[in-house]
From TrEMBL:
InterPro entries according to UniProt: CAP10 (IPR006598), Filamin/ABP280_repeat-like (IPR017868), Filamin/ABP280_rpt (IPR001298), Ig-like_fold (IPR013783), Ig_E-set (IPR014756), O-Glucosyltr/Glycosyltrsf_90 (IPR051091)
Biased composition (Polar residues): 528-540
GO MF term set: glucosyltransferase activity; UDP-glucosyltransferase activity; UDP-xylosyltransferase activity
Protein name according to UniProt: Protein O-glucosyltransferase 3
Gene that encodes it: POGLUT3
Organism from which the protein derives: Anolis carolinensis
Signal sequence range: 1-22
C-alpha cells in the first residue's frame, strides 16, 4: 500500500466497492459503486453515525481510527455497502501549519460500516478539522474539530494523571484475565522474586528480560541466550510511557513462546509472577497480548500490512459467495497440523489444508507435500477457517475472528489474554484436540448455514470490540498499575545490583522515528522530558553517542520485514 505523505492537509474521496476487498488508491481517485442491494430509502448523511478514538484529540495511538455506519432515512442501519460515496477530509486548523500524515483508503467492512485510519508523522499544535461527507452532505456531527495539541506516536508527551488517560480511552474497569492471573499472587515479595527468577529461568537457555520503570524511564537487562524478542516488549513499553506516566515498577517478562511458571498457588514454594505472551491451564504466568498483535498495532500504517484494522476491510467475498470448505495454511509446528493435511487429502470436498514450510517434521514433507504461501486476506474466500495450535495458541486466531468466515477452533490447553471473553458455539465452533470430530463438524456447518452465519457474526463483532488497538494500551497499563508493587528505590536512584542503565545491552531503544525538527509544546510537553530530540535533557536510553537519529528506523524496518516473512510462513 503506497504511503501518501501530504502537506497542508489531505483530501481523500473514495468510492466503495461492495462485497470486495479494498485496494489502494491515490488521494484523487474516485470510484463509482453499485450493489445488488438497495436500501428502501436513500442513505441519510445526517442520521449516519461516526465515532471512535480517531475523532478524539487527546487520545494518542500509533494509527488513529474511527468508524462510520450508513443509516437509511427511516433510521435503519444499512447491512450492505450503500451506493454513493463517503469522503473524508483531514486538515490542520491553522493554514500556517503543515502536517505529515498517512491516509490510506477507507475500509469497507461489507456490512454497512466503514473503518477510517490515519497516521500522523508530526504533531499538530493548533489542531485538526475532520470533515466526513456522504455525497455533498455532512455525516453526523461533521465537521469534527480536534483541538490541539495532537501528538504523533513518537512524541514523548505522557499524560500525568492516569485516571484522565484511562477515561479518554474508555478503559474497562475490570479485565477478567488479569483478575484470574493475579489470584495466585495476593502479595508479591520482590526480594524473593529477585532471588528465584534468575537461577530458575535465566540460565543460558533462558529467555527472560528484567525490566524496571523509574520516573517513567525504561531500564532492562537480559537473562539467558534467547532474548532477541525483547524488541517487542521494548517497543510496547516505550510507546506506553510516551502516552501516560507509568508507576515505578519492576518485573520479569518471558519473551519465549511457552509459559514457564508451572508451580501452583498452593505449592511450597509458590509461583513467582512472570509476564508472558501466552498462558496455559498448567501454568501460572501472567498473560499479556502476544508480541504479534502488539507489534502489528504499533506498526499499523507503517511497517506491516496484516494488522487488526486492515483485516476488517479485506474479508473476501460476501458469505453467500464463499467456498464451502474447511481451510488451513501454516507451518508444521504441531503434529495435528500434519493430520489436518492427511484429512484434506482423503476428503478434498470438505477440507483444503496444506503445510507451507517444514521445520519440526521435515521427514514428512515428501509424504504430505508442501503448498505455496498464500496471502492472508485470501483465506477469507473460504467459509470455514480451521484454527489449530502451533507451538502454543495459534497467533492467527484473533485475525481469523475479525474476518467474516466462521472459525472452527481446536480445543487447547493454551490461551491468549482475551479468550475468557469468548464462548464455544457463540463465537466459534469447537473441535476436539485430536481432530477426530473435524469432518463431522464441517458436514454440520454445511447443513446449518444460518446458525453458523450467526456464530461467525457474533465472533466477528466481539473481536471488533475486544481487539481495538486502544484496548491493548488499557490492558498493559492495568497490569502495571493495579497488581505489580511499587519499587522500593528512590525516585532518582539507580536500581541497585539489578539493572545498569547505560550498558549497551541494557539500553532501551531510542524513538524509532524522531521528528526532523523537534517539536516542543512547552505548556503541555515540557522540553526536559521530550524524546523528540537527542539533546542533554533526553532520557538515559538516548544519550549514547552511537545511537544516531536513523538507527532506530533502520532496525524497525528490518524487524518488520522479518515479522512479515514469519507471518506468511505461519
Amino acid at each position: 500500500m503506497p504511503v501518501m505523505l501530504l502537506w497542508l492537509g489531505v483530501w481523500v474521496s473514495l468510492g466503495l466497492l461492495p462485497g470486495a476487498a479494498s485496494s489502494s488508491s491515490s488521494s484523487s481517485s474516485s470510484f463509482s459503486s453499485s450493489s445488488s442491494w438497495e436500501p428502501l430509502e436513500p442513505v441519510s448523511a445526517e442520521k449516519s453515525l461516526a465515532w471512535g478514538p480517531g475523532l478524539e484529540a487527546e487520545l494518542t495511538l500509533p494509527a488513529r481510527y474511527f468508524y462510520l455506519q450508513a443509516v437509511s432515512s427511516d433510521g435503519r442501519n444499512c447491512t450492505r455497502s450503500p451506493p454513493g460515496q463517503f469522503s473524508v477530509s483531514i486538515k490542520p486548523l491553522s493554514a500556517r501549519e503543515s502536517i505529515q500524515i498517512h491516509v490510506p483508503k477507507l475500509l469497507d467492512r461489507n456490512d454497512g460500516s466503514f473503518l477510517m485510519r490515519y497516521r500522523l508523522h508530526t504533531s499538530v499544535k493548533e489542531g485538526l478539522k475532520v470533515e466526513i461527507l456522504y455525497g455533498d452532505a455532512h455525516v453526523a456531527q461533521s465537521p469534527y474539530i480536534l483541538k490541539g495539541p495532537i501528538y504523533h506516536e513518537y512524541c514523548d508527551c505522557p499524560e500525568k494523571d492516569a485516571e484522565v488517560w484511562k477515561k479518554s480511552l474508555s478503559c474497562p474497569s475490570e479485565e477478567a484475565q488479569i483478575t484470574e492471573d493475579f489470584a495466585a499472587f495476593p502479595s508479591i515479595d520482590l526480594q524473593q522474586m529477585f532471588k528465584e527468577v534468575p537461577p530458575r529461568f535465566g540460565q543460558r537457555m533462558g529467555a527472560i528480560v528484567h525490566y524496571a520503570i523509574l520516573n517513567n524511564r525504561i531500564y532492562r537487562r537480559t537473562l539467558g541466550k534467547y532474548t532477541d524478542f525483547k524488541m517487542f516488549s521494548d517497543e510496547m513499553l516505550l510507546s506506553l510511557s510516551r502516552k501516560v506516566r507509568l508507576p515505578d515498577v519492576e518485573f520479569y517478562v518471558n519473551v519465549a513462546d511457552w509459559p514457564i511458571e508451572h508451580r501452583k498457588a498452593n505449592d511450597t514454594p509458590g509461583p513467582v509472577p512472570i509476564l508472558s505472551w501466552c498462558g496455559s491451564v498448567d501454568s501460572a504466568d501472567i498473560v499479556l497480548p502476544t508480541y504479534d498483535v502488539t507489534h502489528s498495532t504499533l506498526e499499523t500504517l507503517r511497517g506491516v500490512t496484516n494488522d487488526l484494522l486492515s483485516v476488517q476491510g479485506n474479508t473476501g467475498p460476501v458469505w453467500e459467495n464463499k467456498t464451502e470448505q474447511g481451510f488451513f495454511r501454516g507451518r508444521d509446528s504441531r503434529e495435528e497440523r500434519l493430520l489436518l493435511v492427511k484429512l484434506s487429502k482423503e476428503n478434498p470436498e470438505l477440507l483444503d489444508a496444506g503445510i507451507t514450510g517444514y521445520f519440526f517434521f521435515r521427514e514428512k514433507e515428501k509424504e504430505l507435500g508442501k503448498v505455496p504461501l498464500m496471502g492472508f486476506f485470501d483465506f477469507f474466500k473460504y467459509k470455514y477457517q480451521v484454527s489449530v495450535d502451533g507451538t502454543v495458541a495459534a497467533y492467527r486466531f484473533p485475525y481469523l475472528l475479525l474476518g467474516d468466515s466462521v472459525v472452527l477452533k481446536q480445543s487447547s490447553p493454551y490461551y491468549e489474554y482475551f479468550y475468557k471473553e469468548l464462548s464455544p458455539w457463540s463465537h466459534y465452533i469447537p473441535i476436539k484436540r485430536n481432530l477426530e470430530d473435524l469432518l463431522e463438524k464441517i458436514k454440520w456447518v454445511k447443513e446449518n448455514d444460518e446458525v453458523v452465519r450467526k456464530i461467525a457474526k457474533e465472533g466477528q463483532m466481539t473481536a471488533r470490540e475486544l481487539l481495538q488497538p486502544h484496548r491493548f494500551y488499557c490492558y498493559y497499563f492495568k497490569v502495571f498499575q493495579i497488581k505489580i508493587p511499587v519499587m522500593p528505590h528512590g525516585p532518582c536512584s539507580p536500581v541497585p545490583s539489578t539493572i545498569v542503565a547505560d550498558e549497551e545491552e541494557n539500553m532501551g531503544f531510542p524513538p524509532v522515528q524522531p521528528e526532523s525538527e523537534p517539536l516542543h509544546l512547552e505548556d503541555v510537553c515540557p522540553q526536559e522530558v521530550s524524546q523528540t530530540s537527542l539533546g542533554q535533557n533526553s532520557p538515559p536510553f538516548s544519550r549514547k553517542d552511537n545511537y544516531n537519529r536513523d538507527r532506530g528506523a533502520r532496525e524497525a524496518n528490518r524487524r518488520s520485514l522479518r515479522i512479515a516473512a514469519k507471518q506468511l510462513a505461519d
